[in-house]
Amino acid sequence: MDNQTTAAATGDIAHPFMVMLVDDQPFVAELLRRQLINEKDINFHYCQDPTQAVSTAERIGPTVILLDFTMPVMDGLTLCQFIRAHPTTRDIPIIMLSSNDDPVTKAAAFAAGANDYVVKLPDSVELVARLRYHSGSYVSRLQRDDAYRALRASQIKLEELNMQLLKLANIDGLTGIANRRHFDERLAAEWLRALRNRRPISLIMFDVDLFKLYNDKFGHLDGDECLKRLAHTAQDVVSRPADTVARYGGEEFIVLLPETDSSGAIKVAEKLRAEIENLHLPHPDSKVSPYVTISLGVTTILPEASSTPDVCLKVVDEALYRAKDSGRNRLSV
Ligand code: GH3
Ligand code: MG
Ligand code: MG
Ligand code: MG
């Protein structure tokens, strides 16, 4: 027939309504078909076998199901419960069709999950009004669900992108540890906290010894690999959650140790120096050691309102250069 289709309900506003009738008697289908023949936006599909109703509904996507109450193989109440229990059909509106006008039968239909109940055979105007009403509210619900899902998906995507952006802004591209920007933020925050609580802050700045010679010997790519190893080793050594290890410049790193006094910071610095030398990364052209080594500056400050974090950085930088001047592979305070 011309108004029969297999298209599924998509929630598209231009999509016609799809009425699916489940009834054991073909003449009922013929009568209904005639009642709907002039409704160009209402498609009609007849399913005689109630045991096929759920799979047919899955295939054609009805916007409303007209369900015969009395059928021999499976009665309308049972089928209604099946449709309600099935994940892809459970929200489709169901109008129960029965020749019975008894209130108890009607109540049983609603209890089984029907949305409406009409006595056979209803007047065309009333039937069309009911079919439009149920189909319309179902389609707008699908549209709302789709819109909501799309909105949530874009929100989640945006959150992911923001997280990635935040990560990229704070992480050093080569080593994957914190970058200078992140370090500066952490230092400013910890500086203020230490000022408030009158607690010490320690900084360790370290620089690879004779790294230019390492690059000259092995090439820049191996140099990069070496920097990664050093960064990860430093991160392993500095393990308290409040501590921050950052790549400060080319082959220069910095460590922030909040709530740490001078003796604590010196212990961490010495451990860093030893662990890195003990990696035994060959550096044949170094005059300091057969292996890659670092020099470290260490400083501990009790922040004062008259001072700034920059002062701290200057002091630790000077300490690092003293370590270089006094022979490298050592720390200086
Ligand atoms: P010193 O012991 O005095 O620090 O000697 P040095 O050779 O390490 O010092 P210098 O400042 O002369 O050289 C630093 C070298 O670090 C030069 C540069 O090629 C290298 N370097 C800086 N950043 C990177 C990097 O991202 N990758 C590689 N492979 N090398 C880098
Ligand atoms: Mg029947
Ligand atoms: Mg160096
Ligand atoms: Mg340097």
Automatic annotation (TrEMBL):
Domain GGDEF stretches: 199-333
Family annotation (SMART domains): GGDEF, REC
GO CC list: plasma membrane
Modified residues (4-aspartylphosphate): D68
Pfam families from the UniProt entry: GGDEF, Response_reg
UniProt name for this protein: diguanylate cyclase
Domain Response regulatory: 18-135
Annotated organism of origin: Ferrigenium kumadai
Catalytic activity: 2 GTP = 3',3'-c-di-GMP + 2 diphosphate
Keywords of the record: Phosphoprotein
Domain of life: Bacteria
UniProt GO BP: cell adhesion involved in single-species biofilm formation; negative regulation of bacterial-type flagellum-dependent cell motility; phosphorelay signal transduction system
InterPro entries: CheY-like_superfamily, Diguanylate_Cyclase, GGDEF_dom, Nucleotide_cyclase, Rev_trsase/Diguanyl_cyclase, Sig_transdc_resp-reg_receiver
Example GO molecular function: diguanylate cyclase activity
Gene3D superfamilies per the UniProt record, alphabetical: 3.30.70.270, 3.40.50.2300
Alphabetical list of NCBIfam families matching this protein: GGDEF (TIGR00254)
